[in-house]
Design a protein that fits this description.
The protein is an alpha+beta fold. The protein folds into three domains: 101 residues, no CATH class; 182 residues, Nucleotidyltransferase, domain 5 (2-Layer Sandwich), CATH 3.30.420; 65 residues, no CATH class.
Length: 464
């Protein structure tokens, strides 16, 4: 270090000049360089990854050269999702330079960092076969519940569109797929899987007239005001108290799949917890009669706005002008004429009640009631659940639940802006599902370790 002293107009200046120098050896411990409140130190202190080796034990041979520790690979992947690096090539480059990341993975300066291609090989092999990322997510959820972070009484559900790693220009008519499969492995594998599904009796969740040759599982759709593109839906079930994601599911980008995913996630959470939640909040997308009735059947209060039909009755009498008589399952019109129960219309799932031409012929209010020969009422099979949901929407609890539901939107904002999962890097549903599990696990880890850091006393050092 050199110091220069100069006098200008009676003012004394001392300016240091830093010269670049490098020692041959540096003596320090990585352990001493990581702050006690660092996120990775908190994760290492409070979360055990020992289950990884036990889970993958059967996938490794007893002979041959020792392989890379699978726990190390998982820790490296987890760092990428914690710090928003979705490229494994970029992640390995950063790992060479970051002290805290090396410490968390247990790799010293004299140890070789795994090549980026190692992650792809393991993902397509033992990681995918063993559902390792799903088990990581579930292990963290169990830890959250054991620590008392997740209450599980009041939940919220929502789905977000995640763009696929495929161009819209890659879509071709479905009938051309067999021809393309002769030269493209992805399409050939896709058609083979479809054939196996049809042989097992499982129908695909959706069928598209045009399919992407890059990612055949991706759905061409949009959500909100976004332009249509290829993608998937990432569905979250969230505990309102802690903002912890208690379940996650990848589905095709179809609005109908959101309600299906919600029911599956609530069912799994109920089994894990041993009892259902008290309430579930969601937006209007989930406000169909089937979903509302399903919640009631499972003793769950749904704080969900009802999805109203766009059908307009053209100024004619609505169902509210008719009186229901449960003793004989009939409706009575404003004129006192009876509408008899006919049966169920399977096409639109409605109960049909109809008058007769004789009853309607001389009715003084016929012009306000019907333009046909007779009046027909179609009552949806879930009309009762829909009406009860409308009544709940007037309560203070409904307002509170919908305000808490916005936490799910905040989690999706974190997913896209901080974790960097605005656009997927992997292709095909089975690998997209793993990305969603790993991302949700990273989000939950942050909340778990910060909660444990506040509630768990720090370790006491014992000195001789």
């Amino acid at each position: 270090m050199l110091f220069f002293t100069a006098i200008f107009g009676g003012l004394l200046l001392m300016m240091g000049l830093q010269t670049r120098s490098e020692s041959l050896f540096y003596y320090f411990r990585l352990e001493d360089q990581i702050p006690e409140n660092h996120l990775l130190r908190l994760i290492d202190r409070h979360v055990s990854f020992d289950f990884v080796r036990e889970k993958l034990r059967d996938t490794y041979s007893d002979t041959g050269r020792p392989s890379i520790d699978p726990e190390v690979l998982l820790r490296i992947l987890l760092i990428g999702y914690l710090y928003g690096i979705t490229s494994e090539r970029k992640l390995v480059e950063e790992l060479h330079m970051h002290l805290a990341w090396r410490w968390f993975t247990g790799l010293g300066f004299d140890q070789e960092i795994p090549h980026h291609s190692t992650f792809s090989k393991n993902r397509h092999g033992r990681f995918q076969e063993s559902k390792l990322f799903q088990q990581l997510f579930e292990e963290i959820i169990n830890r959250c519940m054991e620590a008392g972070l997740v209450k599980g009484e009041h939940l919220s559900v929502d789905g977000s569109f995640i763009q696929a790693n495929a161009s819209n220009a890659s879509r071709i008519p479905r009938e051309q797929l067999p021809e393309v499969a002769e030269v493209k492995h992805t399409v050939r594998e896709y058609l083979s899987e479809l054939e196996q599904e049809s042989g097992s009796g499982d129908a695909p969740a959706h069928q598209q007239d045009h399919v992407s040759t890059t990612d055949p599982d991706a759905t061409y759709a949009s959500k909100g005001c976004m332009a249509a593109s290829l993608g998937y839906f990432d569905n979250y079930l969230v505990d309102n108290h802690s903002c912890v994601i208690v379940d996650v599911e990848a589905t095709a980008a179809r609005l109908s799949q959101e309600s299906v995913a919600a029911r599956d996630m609530i069912t799994r959470f109920t089994e894990r917890r041993g009892r259902p939640p008290q309430t579930v909040a969601a937006d209007t997308t989930y406000g169909n009669g089937e979903m509302l009735d399903w919640l009631e059947q499972h003793s769950i209060t749904g704080h969900i706005p009802v999805k109203e039909s766009p059908f307009v009755n053209n100024g004619l009498y609505d169902v509210e002008q008719f009186t229901y008589r449960p003793e004989n399952n009939t409706y009575v019109c404003p004129e006192g004429k009876q509408l008899t129960y006919v049966g169920i219309n399977a096409r639109n799932r409605t109960h049909v009640y109809a008058s007769t031409p004789k009853r309607c012929r001389d009715c003084s209010q016929k012009a306000q009631c019907t333009r046909g020969q007779t009046r027909i009422l179609q009552i949806h099979v879930y009309a009762g659940a829909r009406q009860r949901a409308r009544e709940r929407a007037k309560t203070p609890e409904f307002v509170i639940a919908l305000r808490a539901r916005k936490k799910v939107e905040a989690l999706f904002a974190e997913l896209k802006n901080q974790i960097g999962l605005r656009r997927l890097r992997l292709r095909r549903m089975k690998f997209v599902r793993e990305q969603f599990f790993l991302a949700a696990a990273a989000q939950n880890l942050k909340r778990l370790v910060r909660f444990l850091a506040r509630t768990t006393p720090p370790p006491v050092e014992v000195t001789a």
